[in-house]
Amino acid sequence: MLSSPAQHAMSCKNEGGDASDSSLWGGSSSDGDSGSGSDGDALQPAIQALPFNISGLFFFRNLIDQPLQDDIVAEIASQKYFDRERDQVMLFESAVSDTSNRCLPTWTNSLISKLAALLQDQVPPSVHELLFSSQARAGCDVDRQLRQLIVNMYRPGQGIADHVDLLTRFGDGVMICSFLSGIAMELKQLSNNQHVSLWLPAGSVLILTGDARYTWTHGIEARMVDHVQLTSSRSRQTFRIARQHRLSVTIRWMLKVADVLSDTTQSHLRA
Ligand SMILES: O=C(O)CCC(=O)C(=O)O
């Protein structure tokens, strides 16, 4: 049984190059960091849809509508998670029976239940069950799985190293929700070097289960610009899109054996 608090904040290295003001991160306009990323000129453009099936991967480009995105961003801003030094927060659901300690912040539960409704007819029932069934038993089943969420705020120029979510800490079924702006995520197969650069716009949700969760890495290059191939029914064009601040919420299950509070590995991934 975990005796952790429901909320636990961790900071990580800042390498962003943007100095904008925002109620989200409480930084002043004299932030002053210089960008560490290249502008990605030599790169393959990111694409809007997968060119081939990746088993266990589900991608929804426009799942979270603008009002819900705005609500979630406002809720995150009101929590004041971020400042000049902190751009990542980890939220843990706790198994301790003291209810004041058990709960995740309300906004996370509201996001998760909205995702459950939005994905109801969009993913196979077995995947929906993997992502949400334990949640439905919240409060009445001591053996249910517990959630862990990471809220990442990326300044332009920041990224996260390619990784597979820790096998010893997190279960199957990971949801990555994007807010504020898009970013190119690199998906790389461990066994044979297949590589896809996928454009994750604000409002998108990427779901990693099975092979996609265990045999592919995901990561974000630290750079200032993404090249993105946008396709319509009539044309396909590549655009150079300057990175802006991006928020992501990653929702996972903790493994029962995981001592996640002593783990800082994930925060080391940010660059
Ligand atoms: O921010 C993202 O889009 C991905 C975050 C992630 O993979 C992680 O925190 O482990």
How many domains, as an integer? 1
What is the element string, with H for helices and E for strands?
EEEHEHHHEEEEEEHEEEEH
- CATH domain class name: Mainly Beta
CATH architecture annotation? Sandwich
What is the overall shape? Answer: globular
Strand % is: 25-35%
Write down the Rg: 18 Å
- Terminal CA distance reads 33 Å
What average pLDDT do the residues reach?
Answer: 82
Number of helices: 6
The stretches of 5 or more residues where confidence is low (pLDDT under 50) are 1-21, 27-37
- Count the beta strands: 14
**Bound ligands, each once:** 2-oxoglutaric acid
- Helix content, binned percent: 10-25%
Which strand order spans the largest sheet, edge to edge or round the barrel? 1-4-5-14-7-10-3
Question: Could you say what the CATH topology is called?
Answer: Jelly Rolls
What is the structural class? alpha+beta
Mind describing the biggest β-sheet?
7 strands, antiparallel
Tell me about this structure:
With 271 residues, the chain is an alpha+beta fold. The chain has a single domain (7-12, 35-256), classed as Jelly Rolls (Sandwich), CATH 2.60.120.1520. It has helices at residues 66-79, 99-102, 106-118, 125-136, 210-214, 265-268; strands spanning 7-9, 46-47, 57-60, 88-92, 146-154, 160-163, 174-179, 183-189, 195-200, 205-208, 216-220, 225-231, 236-242, 246-254. A seven-stranded antiparallel sheet has the order 1-4-5-14-7-10-3. A four-stranded antiparallel sheet has the order 6-11-8-9. A three-stranded mixed sheet has the order 2-12-13, with no helix packed on it. The structure holds 2-oxoglutaric acid.
